Amino acid sequence: MKILNEVRVFAPATVANVAVGFDILGFAFHGPGDEVVLRRSTQAGLKITTITGTGDKKLPLEPERNTAGFAALGLLRHLGQEDLGLEMEIHKKMPFGSGLGSSAASAAAGVFAANTLLGSPLSKEELLPFAVAGEEIADGAYHADNVGPALLGGILFIRENKTLDVHKLPVPEELHVAVVYPHIEVLTKDARAVLSNQLELSQHIQQNGNLGALIIGLYENNYDLIGRALEDVIIEPQRAQLISGFADVKASAITQGALGASISGAGPSVFALCRGEATAKHVAQEMKSAFQKYGIMSDGYASPINTAGAIQM
Question: Does residue 141 share a domain with residue 187?
Answer without folding.
Answer: no
